[in-house]
Amino acid sequence: QVQFVESGGGLVQPGESLRLSCTASGFAIDGSDMSWYRQGATKERELVAGLSGDGYGKNWADFARGRFTMSRDNFRNTVYLEMFNLKPDDTAVYYCNAGYYRPQFADSWGQGTQVTVSS
After folding, report:
1. pLDDT of residue 90
2. How far is CA 13 from CA 4, 42, 86, 91, in A?
3. What does each C-alpha distance from 70 to 18, 20, 25, 41, 105 come to in angstroms?
4. How many CB atoms lie within 10 A of CB 45?
């Protein structure tokens, strides 16, 4: 059974940073493309970033390029999303999944982690 557990969200002020974590279970992320998504209150879920299984390929949404970084720890079966210079528009629930352009396990979303950017 594939599961994702996201953590690290919180309330921050504009310009601050956060590091999100997502631990997967039920499969090994080693060699798997992984990705982060987000869903704002009135928006559909959208891709934030994808990271190829070999760690070299990166697929960024325009809003994330240059401000966010994505990394992986295959030993911990965990992926990370570091977000810098956060903006109010980044307020959303953030999720991870396998896949590069789209979620591989679209029926197995975690609970997500809430990020709120507000002064």
Report:
1. 97
2. 27, 21, 8, 11
3. 12, 9, 19, 23, 19
4. 17
